[in-house]
Amino acid sequence: MALRFEVLAACGAARRGRLTTPHGTVDTPAFLPVGTAGAVKGVPPQELAASGASILLANLYHLALRPGIDVIERLGGLHRFVGWPGPLLTDSGGFQVWSLGHLRRVDEDGVTFRSHLDGSPLRFTPEGVADWQARLGVDVAMALDECLPWPVTREAAEASWRRTLGWARRSREAWRGPGGLFGIAQGSAFRDLRERAAADLGRLDFDGYAIGGVSVGEPAAERLAAVEWTAPALPASRPRYLMGVGYPADILHAVRHGVDLFDCVLPARNARHGLLFTRHGVLRIKNAAFREDPRPVDAACACPCCSRLSRAFLHHLARAGELTASVLATLHNLRFYLDFMAALRQAIELGTLTELTAMFAIRSTGEDPPDDPHPGSDPESSDPREKRSP
RNA sequence: GGAGGCGUGGCCGAGUGGACAAUGGCAGCAGACUGUAAAUCUGCCGGGCUAAGCCCUACCGAGGUUCGAAUCCUCGCGCCUCCA
Asked: Which of A33, A54, A87, A103 has the fewest CB atoms nearer than 10 Å to its CB?
């Protein structure tokens, strides 16, 4: 078996684990920064390691389109190509079935995309996707799945799951890579379907199991429910991976239900858009309130940004549209997420999970963000400009 | 001295008799973002109200023509270009 997963400690359903891959180990719960095209936008691979990342996510659809699987293979595989020697996971392109919904056609055998770059057709089948990921040499490959939009009828969700399950089976049989292969459970917002999907998938003996089909625009309650239904129904001996989630509160919630791995574009994208995560809540650095704020973004953070730069400077760079603002903010948000995950791991070992909500300014789980017309008025926040995380 | 051109909301800049509180862009104020077609997108952006409607004040200034003027005329003021 290419991957080994051990559960080192538990706290309720939450697990403190270790995933061993061909390119190194991943302490779980872990967060995977999203490097769609091979790098997190604005962050060189070396800096990523310094931020505390142990495993990086890249995207097969985007890499297959550009520069092409052949090119990466000839250049010595994905690790060498992107300059990241640690564990790598590639998403299969299943998410693009949703996000690029108008550019693809799904049939029983697979998916045909029309390139968003030049319109040329590109065929994705379970076997082809497994083969590409094997040739890239990734540590964790994802089976091709159909990520459904929300909402969707029960009939559509059921038919889709039957198809995705077939693809999962074919992927499992086709997998010849050096790393492990994860299957992805779907089921949309239907409890019995979610539970059945988890059970169906669990019988296929994957190296890990993902919960897919969330964070596609559904209400928070449904997203949380999908996790609560699916996670416990997946094999306990393998890592569980919640794809595309989320805010710290979502992550904490999922960890409490036994999820081990997460990935999300939020820390990187929000950073580029001027939204910074801090231990005192969220902060929109471009807001006028920070123009002359000499304090660091988060005094408790050791990222390159917080260790010597002021909010005022970051505010200035962001307003000036300077590239460096994005770089610094991304470095910070990633560091925040990775610190959060480290704290989560420690809390599971110590049995102090509950205290995290205060440490990282997490308001609650299981609720949509409140419609507060005056955010920042939380009495627990030391500064009215620091807003609580959703 | 002569000839011509131009002055529009914080800035740039459309509009050249009614559909104009006045297109755009920038700046400004706020918000969104969840397995990345995102360094993106959205809302507000003269003032006031018993606000999807109404009322004021507005296109350098002052007069005028007209049912009606940012748009036409006259006179100022300011700026620019060319020729001497």
From this structure: A103
